[in-house]
Design brief:
Length: 353
């Protein structure tokens, strides 16, 4: 579905800008959310106070909800754009998306094993013999959580969410066609009356609102607001500060995190779209990060937990530490995508012979 106002449509590049912003939040969260880690490593966060710094770092956890929202939005937008699409055809597309994601994850897994092998203990991780091999292969295709296998990387828990979204969002999209925005109410009530998988319960509302945003072209409509750029930036910054303040309250964390994260994720996507994505040079940087965000999500933990556990904090200054991890994770992703492109090129050459 495209907006009727030319140049005011939420595009793939806007999605990547939001993902680029989210991946920075993710790295900041993992590096600095733990007060004991921050103090032990002597992290310098001036001119901020420790409380403010840790609050901002803790807010970085919102990144997962942003990724979930954008994934649901993207899948649903594709479904809504195909007016005569049947449920069967939608799930045929979902299967293709599932196997593509599984293949991409498998390639990343193999690259991790090859490049980081000296820092890994696969026998201790998976065990010996045939059972160990089965556990390894289960982890290698991102299905470890389904079979109760401990993943090689703690960040890989997100693969369960990614796979679930592929198959749940088409259902939500068709429900939204029938029930409209009442599906949001259903998503709010369902966890109270149905015993759900933790990740489904945690991100159900985020995904459903992402579907509804695609159906109603909410972000496109925000892009059409006739406000001066300065006011958009001021509202965006003020809104983001308010989001940090509200979300990190203890009562919100304990009782309302699913609801608050849903609408904060929506706000962040809208905010990055009408601010960051309007500045050409900055837009390119964040869009580039967004294109590599999935790979960065899946490999960054190796750098700051396995390879450079102490070294990553040697720079002391938080901003330098963050940029170092960002560069390492991005460099890995760029290298991996380059290898994949080379492999595709070789395959096409061989196929022509």
């Amino acid at each position: 579905m495209e907006s009727k106002v030319q140049g005011k449509t939420f595009t793939k590049e806007h999605t990547n800008v939001a993902k680029g912003f989210a991946i920075i939040l993710l790295l900041m969260y993992h590096l600095f959310f733990n007060v004991y880690e921050v103090e032990a490593m002597g992290v310098i966060y001036t001119p901020l106070s420790q409380k403010t710094f840790l609050t901002i770092a803790g807010f970085g956890n919102i990144c997962v909800s942003v990724f979930v929202f954008l994934t649901a939005y993207g899948i649903a937008k594709g479904i809504f754009s195909q007016k005569d699409l049947s449920m069967i055809d939608a799930y045929k597309q979902a299967l293709k998306r599932f196997f593509k994601l599984m293949l991409n994850f498998f390639i990343l897994y193999v690259s991790v094993i090859i490049i980081m092998y000296p820092h890994l203990d696969l026998r201790a991780q998976y065990g010996w013999g045939g059972q160990g091999f089965i556990r390894l292969m289960t982890d290698a295709i991102g299905l470890h959580s389904i079979f109760g296998v401990a993943p090689l990387n703690v960040s890989w828990w997100y693969m369960e969410v990614a796979y679930l979204l592929i198959f749940l969002v088409p259902l939500f999209a068709f429900m939204a066609k029938k029930a409209g925005y009442y599906i949001i109410l259903i998503a709010c009530i369902a966890p109270l009356v149905i015993n759900m998988n933790f990740n489904i319960e945690r991100f159900l509302l985020v995904a459903v609102v992402g579907v509804c945003a695609a159906k109603g072209e909410w972000i496109d409509k925000v892009m059409q607001w006739k406000l001066h750029a300065v006011f958009k930036w001021l509202l965006g910054i003020a809104g983001l500060v308010l989001c940090v303040f509200v979300r990190q309250k203890e009562i919100v964390q304990e009782s309302f995190i699913s609801i608050t994260d849903t609408f904060i994720a929506l706000f962040i996507v809208c905010m990055t779209t009408v601010t960051i994505a309007t500045v050409p040079g900055v837009k390119k940087v964040f869009s580039f990060l967004g294109r590599h965000s999935m790979n960065m999500y899946l490999v960054h933990t190796f750098f700051y937990m396995n390879i450079w556990r102490k070294e990553i904090y040697q720079f002391k200054y938080a901003i330098i530490t963050l940029l170092f991890l960002l560069a390492a994770s991005l460099g890995y992703s760029v290298f991996l995508e380059g290898i994949k492109k080379l492999g595709k090129w070789i395959y096409k050459k061989i196929k022509r012979v």
